[in-house]
Amino acid sequence: MPPFLPLALALATPAQTGIEPAVLAEINFARTRPRDYAEQLRAYRRHFKGKIVWYPGNPDGLRTEEGTRAVDEAIRFLERQAPLEPIEPATLLARAARDHVREQGPRGGTGHYSADGANPRDRVQRRGGGSYVAEVITYGPPSAVEVVRQLIVDDAVPGRGHRKTLFAAEMRYAGVACGPHQGYRVMCVADLGRKPDGHP
After folding, report:
1. Which of 125, 94, 119, 95 is nearest to 23 (CA)?
2. Which fold has domain 19-193?
């Protein structure tokens, strides 16, 4: 079973609604056209001043831990990455992801565990699925582009676990859920599996 992955945290602007399909589309753009996605990161890189990035739509700036180092490392990864099959949407996985957003967002929690101790596998199994799932979460990014960029750059995340999950060839299905968060304004959860129900 894949390990639970560390969190991606960021400062927030007000949440957009209904971005889940756009998040999956952006993930698939990166998976199927990694070199084109690398070009987008090159454009993003130009907005850095030291460790703060002042990209359009974010007038307050976003402080990063690694600055351009993480972006450059992501670009190198993408240039070597072979195109992958797109990820298909999965209703059961989306419901499990939504369960986490609804439970965690109002109380301002973070992490892969629910207040009752449930982990991603538990949440998928409660929905009638299997246990072979991986989960990635962002707190703060309000748009699909920002969500996926944060997961792929993976600033300050040892091992770049979010990126590895998004580019795991065996992960062919995903469910995405985003919603309000008490501390970071918005959170997005993506549960991924080999099968649409999380079975091996």
Report:
1. 94
2. Pathogenesis-related Protein p14a (3.40.33)
